[in-house]
Amino acid sequence: MKRIILLLAIIIAGASQTVRGQNVAVKTNLLSDMVLSPNLGIEVGLAPKWTLDVTGQFNAWKLSNDRRWKHWAIQPEARYWLCDRFSAHFLGAHVHGGQYNIGGIDGKLKFLGTDTQKLKDARYQGWFVGAGIAYGYAWILDRHWNLEAEIGFGYSYTRYDKYRCSGGGKKMEANKPHHSVGPTKAAINLVYLF
User: Fold this and answer.
1) Is the pLDDT of residue 18 over 50?
2) Given the DSSP bridges, would you call strands 171-193 and 24-29 parallel, antiparallel or unpaired?
3) Residue 125 CA from chain centroid, whole number
4) Cβ atoms of 151 and 132 closer than 8 Å
5) Which of 15, 68, 69, 192 gives the lowest tally of CB atoms within 10 Å of its CB?
6) What is the 3-state secondary structure (H, E, C) of the chain?
7) Distance between CA 124 and CA 117 in Å, rounded?
8) Closest CA to 78 of 94, 57, 97
9) What is the pLDDT of residues 173-193, one digit of tens each?
10) Measured in Å, how far apart are the chain's first and last C-alpha atoms?
11) What is the average pLDDT across 97-114?
12) Are strands 39-47 and 50-62 parallel, antiparallel or unpaired?
């Protein structure tokens, strides 16, 4: 009952606040949308040059021929805008985490210790966490719409179980760690400002 009362108090407090121009934005990453990873982000102004962006994505697709591309992820980011918030250049610091189940995909990328060719004959299931820094730029399209590009670089740590894609999906490895340094964010966001 205490949780319900607390939730109602938060909703009432939020509804009673006035939303001023360029204080809140919702967004979607068009790059993630292109690879069928539905996502949604919200960004809130904290100070004249500071915002907090929280983006999440969820993908529950099971592809044909027993291929998998399932995951959920969340990535909060503090942003410092070099001009006014929601316009021009910004710098960000983010953390991220989530879970995944991916395999049976003929990857062709080897980069900084990560080899996606291993996804062809095996399925990996696990979790990840990490952090990074980012740079981005926002173009004002009109009063309520922006287009934003961002790239991030950082560190990710994962633990996973490895399964065969064929032969009944037998577990081959359990609780294996993997460290990676490289891109942690790539976005072309379509943004709607309230």
Assistant:
1) no
2) antiparallel
3) 18
4) no
5) 15
6) CHHHHHHHHHHHHHHHCCCCCCCEEEEEEHHHHHCCCCEEEEEEEEECCEEEEEEEEEEEEECCCCCEEEEEEEEEEEEEECCCCCCEEEEEEEEEEEEEEEECCCCCCEECCEEHHHHCCEEEEEEEEEEEEEEEEEEECCCCEEEEEEEEEEEEEEEEEEEECCCCCCEEEEEEEEEEEEEEEEEEEEEEEC
7) 12
8) 94
9) 999 999 999 999 999 999 999
10) 33
11) 78
12) antiparallel
Which residues, 6 or more positions from 191, have their beta carbon under 8 angstroms from its beta carbon?
25, 26, 27, 43, 86, 138, 145, 146, 147, 148
- Residue 58: CA atoms inside 13 Å, Cβ hemisphere, count? 3
> Among positive and negative, which fits the CA dihedral 77, 81, 86, 88?
negative
Distances (CA, A) of 194 to 29, 78, 86: 18, 19, 11
* Residues 98, 77, 13: CA angle, nearest 5 degrees: 100
8 A C-beta contact, residue 63 and residue 48: no
161 CB neighbour count, 10 Å cutoff: 15
Span of 73-82, 158-167, 183-192 with lowest mean pLDDT: 158-167
Residue 107 has pLDDT above 80, yes or no: no
Q: Is 112 left (phi over 0), alpha (psi -120 to 50) or beta?
A: left
User: What number of other Cβ atoms are within 10 A of residue 24's Cβ?
Assistant: 16
> Is residue 132 pLDDT above 70, yes or no?
yes
